[in-house]
């Protein structure tokens, strides 16, 4: 067996894949429809949308397979993303790369495989639309064209998904992306009895930045705040721009007090930026933090409303304190 090599742009490719926020998300009909079509059109046992992650291939959609992922080093798709054209293996037992691969010698007993690379809009190869079957078979030019056409639809769905769930300016989640991610993450955290926190941010006097310095400068301030959020929170936290100058962070597996520490760190970094940037205006935020109790069952929307109310109290108090001074 030959393990798949790493593509030359592996780090860039992985960044692109992770930024899509598709890994470990629930199945979706718009992808399942396409794998169902592939299975039926080609009369194979299995059709997958496989995303090739650092050490595994994970299936966004699967027909005819119960596994949700397999190790990358035994994957066929790890090989398929190394070329721009589809990889076709008419008979895995006759191929030196695969004849003794555990996916060939054991379940699901792959003999025939065809995988078409799926490209992100920046050209990175994310994974494949692939089909396989326990019987060897010939796969001609027309078949390859058909599989490529289906793969192009999967690519379109991936880019539509990204546009619908990611904030175009900051590349954080938008409201829809946040709700998609946050509710299942919260449900999982409750099952695991891991405490979480939610932080709601709203920039102070943001309208004045737009009014005095122009909309483009306002955009720069929003970007600077988003960048600071990325730097201050942890990789596993779910960050979003809900709209306008409102941002939110869901901290998973977060001991009581950690959210406050991170918010303090973020505000200290903003203060430092405000002193040295020379932009002519400070970026300041109000925030509300709620700690989500282990036995809480409120949906994420209700938690957002509670954090929003706390943020407004914080903003009102800060305005009142300014007025006194
Ligand atoms: N530059 C820019 N401005 C935006 C964007 N989306 C919303 N806005 C503006 O953001 C402003 C938000 O207004 P407010 O919530 O009243 O902002 P504020 O001045 O921070 O008010 P306080 O929160 O009470 O301090 C509005 O003027 C919107 O037009 C955007 O994508 N870019």
TrEMBL record:
Pfam families named in the record: GAF, GGDEF
Positions of the GGDEF domain: 194-325
Protein name: Diguanylate cyclase (GGDEF)-like protein
Transmembrane segments: none
Domain of life assignment: Bacteria
InterPro entries: GAF, GAF-like_dom_sf, GGDEF_dom, Nucleotide_cyclase, Rev_trsase/Diguanyl_cyclase
């Amino acid at each position: 067996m030959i393990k798949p090599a790493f593509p030359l742009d592996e780090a860039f490719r992985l960044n692109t894949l992770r930024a899509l926020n598709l890994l470990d998300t629930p199945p979706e009909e718009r992808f399942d429809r396409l794998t169902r079509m592939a299975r039926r059109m080609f009369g194979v046992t299995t059709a997958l949308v496989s995303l090739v992650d650092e050490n595994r291939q994970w299936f966004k959609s699967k027909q005819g397979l119960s596994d949700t992922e397999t190790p990358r080093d035994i994957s066929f798709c790890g090989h398929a993303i190394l070329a721009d054209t589809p990889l076709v293996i008419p008979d895995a037992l006759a191929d030196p790369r695969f004849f003794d691969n555990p996916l060939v010698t054991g379940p699901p007993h792959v003999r025939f495989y065809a995988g078409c690379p799926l490209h992100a809009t920046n050209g990175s190869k994310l994974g494949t639309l692939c089909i396989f079957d326990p019987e060897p078979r010939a796969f001609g030019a027309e078949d390859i064209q058909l599989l490529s056409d289906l793969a192009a639809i999967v690519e379109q769905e991936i880019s539509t998904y990204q546009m619908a769930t990611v904030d175009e300016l900051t590349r954080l989640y938008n409201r829809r992306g946040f709700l998609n991610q946050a509710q299942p993450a919260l449900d999982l955290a409750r099952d695991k009895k891991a405490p979480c926190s939610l932080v709601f941010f709203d920039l102070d006097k943001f309208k004045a930045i737009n009014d005095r310095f122009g909309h483009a400068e306002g955009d720069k301030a929003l970007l600077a705040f988003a960048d600071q959020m990325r730097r201050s929170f942890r990789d596993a936290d779910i960050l979003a721009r809900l709209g306008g100058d409102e941002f939110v962070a869901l901290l998973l597996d977060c001991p009581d007090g950690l959210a406050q520490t991170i918010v303090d760190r973020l505000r200290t970094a903003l203060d430092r930026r405000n002193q040295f940037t020379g932009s002519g205006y400070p970026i300041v935020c109000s925030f509300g933090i709620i700690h989500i109790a282990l036995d809480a069952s409120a949906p994420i929307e209700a938690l957002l409303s509670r954090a929003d109310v706390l943020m407004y109290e914080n903003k009102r108090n800060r305005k009142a304190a300014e007025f006194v001074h």
